[in-house]
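Reviewer 2 asked us to include a model.

Predict the structure of this chain.
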Amino acid sequence: MIFTDRNTRNQRLEICKDCPHYIESTRTCGPLIIGEDQGELVKIDGRKRKVRLCGCIMPVKTRLKTSKCPLGKWGSLVDAEALKALKIFVQEMESKGAIKNRNIQPFVDAYNKAFDTNKKYTSCSTCIKQMYQEAKEALK
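Predicted model (structure tokens):
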């Protein structure tokens, strides 16, 4: 499952609501970003470097396991190596329109590890496309 449980989502959202960069009227991290716009740069408390706010709608972002706070207040719940593997498979699907048969099992394994599921190997193209779409959305 690409989504967090309700408790995790609520904890993340409460952290966001306590942040000075949270905008209640839009429920976003900084100004709402639409399209390819870049987020607002802000200084991190007590540090010299700046971080770009994401501009995301937080009730949505806090539900995704792969999401993380740009200020480091909460992190992704997905294993970094599993995400890296998923990115490779998503790129393969995008460039070739399909995934090679020999890569289906590693793709399913990475998907299961990333999203804490127990999907089985399948040659069903509809099932593979569904997992691909979920992985692609989660990696955005």
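The chain is about 45% helix and 5% strand. The chain has a mean pLDDT of 85. We have added this to the supplementary material.
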